Amino acid sequence: MSHLTRQEIPKEWPLPRKGGVYIIRPNNNLSKGIPVLIILRDILKLGNNRREIKKIIHDKKVLLNDKFVKDEKENVLLFDVLKFPLIKKNYRLSISEQGKFLLEEINEKESEKKISKIIGKKILKNKKIQVNLSDGTNFLFNEKFKINDSVVIDLKNRKIEKVLPLKEGTKIKVYSGKHIGKTGKIISLDEKMKMAKISSNNQDINVLIKQIMVIE
Predict the structure, then answer these.
(1) Residues 6+ apart with CB under 8 A from 180
(2) Number of structural domains, the chain?
(3) Domain of residue 202, residue span
(4) In the predicted structure, residue 113 carries a pLDDT above the cut 60
């Protein structure tokens, strides 16, 4: 189906359950992001209906991770960057402590990069190493890294700029689980139990490593 009912929309979408019967379904990763249409129409209020949003997209006024958006059903994933060159506005998709997606306005320099988490790797021919990231992208990368580290991606040049290692003292964002949306620093790591102790808002909490992402 190309649409969802209001009752089917992910809990992370900042939309009321009541309203019209149907709402757009993203092209992929339903529970990991939010469609461009919803962001432009319902959050940023840049148009009143789907037709107006499609015109904005057709006129090449929106970039997602430094590429022009071509379809209003394109899914904006956590930490993705949206740019609006004509109005000189840039946003990063984040998530609140209430578990709802939100847009954080960022400056031009910040909009040139995004962070993603390393979730796997693959050895290719000639001993080349492919890094698999949480946003579904892959890069050839031969620098030192570990699974669960994060990387800073240079969006313009489409390359990994640096690794953000998962270690004590690093800043993290919790992106799932009961502590979703919290930001803090790692106090200690228990690799065996796959847990991290985090200091957030003067409170120590325990979070699964799979629920956190290292950020700058």
Answers:
(1) 95, 97, 99, 174, 211
(2) 3
(3) 171-214
(4) yes
Instruction: Tell whether 199 and 117 lie within a shared domain.
Output: no
Say what the pTM is: 0.91
Q: Is the pLDDT of residue 7 over 80?
A: no
Distance CA 199, CA 127 (A): 39
CATH of residue 193: 2.30.30.30
pLDDT at position 17 is 65
The residue with greater pLDDT, 35 or 15, is 35
Domain of 47: which CATH number? 3.10.290.10
Residue 1 has pLDDT above 80, yes or no: no
